[in-house]
Amino acid sequence: MSNDLHQPAETFPEPPVTELSDSPAARHTRTGAAWFGICLAAVVLVFLIVFMLQNTDSVEVTFLWMHGNLPLALALLVASVGTAIATMIVGAARIIQLRRQARRQRH
C-alpha cells in the first residue's frame, strides 16, 4: 500500500491563492472609474428629479437688486450650483498655487 493516501491533511500542498488584485477584472481603470462616475451621477440625478418634483411651490427670491418668484427646488438648485462653482474656483486656485510651488522646488 502507498502512504500517499494516508498522509495527514496538513501535508498536502495548498492550492495556489490568487488575489483579486492580480485579476485583470479587479484592476482600477479609467473606464471603470468613468462607469462608476456615470452610475453615481445617474443616481444623484434621479434623487434631484424627485426633489424638484416634490418642491414645486413658488417662493419669493431677492438677490441684490433682483426680485422674483421661483419654484423652491429651482431656487435651491441655483444656490447649490453657485456654491459648487465658488468651491471649484477656490480649489483651482489652490491647485495652481501648489503646482507653482512644486515647479520652484524642482528648479
UniProtKB/TrEMBL annotation:
Highest taxon of the lineage: Bacteria
Keywords carried by this UniProt record: Cell membrane, Membrane, Transmembrane, Transmembrane helix
A GO CC term attached to the entry: plasma membrane
Stretches the record annotates as Disordered: 1-25
Keyword Cell membrane: yes
Domain Lipopolysaccharide assembly protein A intervals: 54-106
Transmembrane annotation, as ranges: 33-53, 73-96
Protein name per Swiss-Prot or TrEMBL: Lipopolysaccharide assembly protein A domain-containing protein
Species whose genome carries this gene: Paractinoplanes toevensis
